[in-house]
UniProtKB/TrEMBL annotation:
This is Uncharacterized protein. InterPro entries: Prot-tyrosine_phosphatase-like (IPR029021), Tyr/Ser_Pase_IphP-type (IPR026893). The lineage of its organism: unclassified sequences, metagenomes, ecological metagenomes. GO terms for molecular function: phosphoprotein phosphatase activity. It holds the Pfam family Y_phosphatase3.
Length: 64
């Protein structure tokens, strides 16, 4: 099974879709690509809570 086939199978098994990307971006001066992971489905069928898990390209320049 190829990567694309396995990824398609995994995506079709999700009961909820991830939130739109534009809803997850957080604008903080000096941050690069800061996003909230809230709304994504977990393996056990739950959903990641908003405001709990974040990812960012770099935190070193944050001014707040």
């Amino acid at each position: 099974m190829s990567y694309f086939q396995s990824n398609a199978a995994r995506m079709s098994a999700m009961t909820t879709l991830p939130p739109r990307t534009s809803d997850r971006f957080i604008d903080i001066d000096g941050s690069i690509n800061l996003r909230d992971f809230g709304g994504y489905p977990t393996k056990d069928g739950e959903t990641v809570k908003r405001g709990l898990l974040f990812r960012c390209g770099a935190l070193t320049g944050i001014s707040e």
